[in-house]
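DOMAIN: structural biology
WANTED: fold as tokens
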Amino acid sequence: MADANRCERCRKKFRYPYLLRRHRSRKTPCAAAEASPETAELEELCHRAIYAQKEQIDDLVQLVKLLIAALEKKSGVIADFQSELGGDKVSPCF
């Protein structure tokens, strides 16, 4: 959320809204703030971290799906085995 009393162009913060309006209405406009190299590097690191986390989450989702499928297959085999032996006499080992 952007600050209410901050100039969008130079990022200068003002205590009161009237000061921001006076700043915006100047005859010579303020200079646009340039990002420092440290800020640009930090932004790049943040983007990389977010992308890496998304990839890790996607990998975990795939792993959970595989585990669920394996458990469903295993429980299906146990149910088939129980029905062959005559019902609920055999309990699953997991």
